[in-house]
């Protein structure tokens, strides 16, 4: 019996300590005197790794998801003679939900796992300890540029995803299935509000960017420095980040559109 | 050299992101009208507003001039009071103007149709905070059917 309580207690203490460590890591990585000359090149490098290299997968999947939305939406809407509502359907589902969420999931898989593996391997090969030996704070030098790069690049990726998706829906709906081009855009324009839909979507993607990047960095930094540990940390990054994105999406949707 | 290429790509990446934002903002969402510009407020009391919602458009002859900003019950008899903000661009509506709750299409959203009234020396213009007295309520399908059946029974 006491074994059981001991287990529970250890679990709770571990998770509280984990949250505390993640918070402390975040604070000490972000807060501090900015050193633009030193950190700007590091940041640009990470923008390239995290953002630019994720661009292709985001644009291609955005195009396909938009095209599928156009096709599926058309077959349903045409039954009601409402195929002109295809534009708002595609635009709203992309801007409100699919853009931020799918980008978050893809970003966790494409960039988050890479971040975790990279930092985990840095830890395993004792590069982080060497930095500390040289009186360089690894949080400032390794974590901070990656965090900012993730936070900035994912909303941009989500916007690209939505834009390409809307264009894909337009290609299928208007080019192939024969929805009137003018109606497609004008009905979309009257239904999509930049504050309610666009801004809320961007806010969502910023929240997801924060969560995914943070989870990836934390998992990497806390990885057990062995090959098995790094692989476990990478898996756990993708799983935790995806679940966090989906769970938070529900909460954010309830706050933004539920009332 | 490597760093130049990286910078170039990051630049392209950021520009593409901004382009995507402006594409969505300009092409997919227009609604900046009356949410950003100068507006003034008008009130109108109805018997029944149907399924009119906050943010429903206010249209003059199909052109959106404003939006419904608040719906509440007012007065001793709890009549629905609709508050709408109209763009300052269109501030020359006379007191004799009327508003009615209309439906776009057969199953469409409901909106407020503003019908500008006549203008002569004896009528003044609507200003910020004024009420439009001449209102027509929404058509409620059940009431309509009820009236129809009632009139059939009289024959």
From TrEMBL, chain A:
Keywords: Cell inner membrane, Cell membrane, Membrane, Transmembrane, Transmembrane helix, Transport. It is a multi-pass membrane protein. The keyword Oxidoreductase does not apply. The keyword Cytoplasm does not apply. GO terms for cellular component: ATP-binding cassette (ABC) transporter complex. It is found in: Cell inner membrane. The chain crosses the membrane at residues 12-32, 47-71, 147-170, 198-218, 230-257. InterPro entries: ABC_MlaE_roteobac, MlaE_Permease, Permease_MalE. It comes from the Bacteria. GO terms for molecular function: phospholipid transporter activity. Part of the ABC transporter complex MlaFEDB, which is involved in a phospholipid transport pathway that maintains lipid asymmetry in the outer membrane by retrograde trafficking of phospholipids from the outer membrane to the inner membrane. Probably responsible for the translocation of the substrate across the membrane. The complex is composed of two ATP-binding proteins (MlaF), two transmembrane proteins (MlaE), two cytoplasmic solute-binding proteins (MlaB) and six periplasmic solute-binding proteins (MlaD). Belongs to the MlaE permease family. This is Intermembrane phospholipid transport system permease protein MlaE. It comes from Idiomarina zobellii.
UniProtKB/TrEMBL annotation, chain B:
It comes from the Bacteria. Pfam families: MlaD (PF02470). The chain crosses the membrane at residues 6-26. GO terms for molecular function: phospholipid binding; phospholipid transporter activity. Residues 39-117 form the Mce/MlaD domain. InterPro entries: ABC_MlaD, Mce/MlaD, MlaD_Phospholipid_Transporter. Keywords: Membrane, Transmembrane, Transmembrane helix. NCBIfam families: OM_asym_MlaD. PANTHER family: INTERMEMBRANE PHOSPHOLIPID TRANSPORT SYSTEM BINDING PROTEIN MLAD, INTERMEMBRANE PHOSPHOLIPID TRANSPORT SYSTEM BINDING PROTEIN MLAD-RELATED. This is Toluene ABC transporter substrate-binding protein. It comes from Idiomarina zobellii.
């Amino acid at each position: 019996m006491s074994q059981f309580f001991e287990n529970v207690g250890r679990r709770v203490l571990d998770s509280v300590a984990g949250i505390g460590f993640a918070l402390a890591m975040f604070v000490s990585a972000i807060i501090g005197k900015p050193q633009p000359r030193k950190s700007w090149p590091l940041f640009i490098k990470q923008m390239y790794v995290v953002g630019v290299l994720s661009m292709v997968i985001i644009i291609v999947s955005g195009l396909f998801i938009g095209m599928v939305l156009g096709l599926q939406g058309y077959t349903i809407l045409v039954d009601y003679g409402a195929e002109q509502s295809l534009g708002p359907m595609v635009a709203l589902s992309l801007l409100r939900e699919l853009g931020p969420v799918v980008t978050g999931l893809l970003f966790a898989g494409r960039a988050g796992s890479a971040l975790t593996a990279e930092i985990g391997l840095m830890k395993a090969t004792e590069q982080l300890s060497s930095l500390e030996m040289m009186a360089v704070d690894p949080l400032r030098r390794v974590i901070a540029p990656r965090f900012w790069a993730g936070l900035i690049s994912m909303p941009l990726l989500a916007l690209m995803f939505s834009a390409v998706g809307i264009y894909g829906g337009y290609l299928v709906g208007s080019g192939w299935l024969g929805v009137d081009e003018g109606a497609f855009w004008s009905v979309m324009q009257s239904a999509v509000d930049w504050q309610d839909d666009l801004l809320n979507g961007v806010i969502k993607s910023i929240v997801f960017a924060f969560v995914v990047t943070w989870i990836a960095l934390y998992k990497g930094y806390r990885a057990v420095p062995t090959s098995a540990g790094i692989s476990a940390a990478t898996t756990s990054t993708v799983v935790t980040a995806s679940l966090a994105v989906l769970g938070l999406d529900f909460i954010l949707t309830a706050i933004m559109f539920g009332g | 050299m490597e760093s130049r290429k990286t910078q170039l790509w990051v630049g392209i990446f950021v520009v593409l992101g901004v382009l995507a934002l402006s594409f969505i903002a300009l092409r997919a969402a227009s609604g900046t009208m009356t949410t950003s510009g100068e507006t003034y407020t008008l009130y109108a009391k109805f018997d029944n507003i149907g399924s009119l919602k906050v943010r429903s458009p206010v249209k003059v002859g199909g052109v959106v001039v404003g939006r419904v900003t608040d719906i509440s019950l007012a007065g001793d008899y709890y009549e629905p009071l609709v508050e709408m903000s109209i763009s300052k661009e269109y501030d020359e509506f006379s007191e004799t103007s009327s508003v009615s709750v209309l439906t776009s299409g057969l199953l469409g959203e409901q909106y407020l149709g503003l019908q500008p009234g006549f203008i002569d020396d004896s009528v003044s213009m609507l200003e910020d905070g004024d009420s439009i007295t001449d209102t027509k309520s929404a058509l409620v399908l059940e009431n309509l059917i009820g009236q129809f059946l009632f009139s059939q029974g009289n024959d």
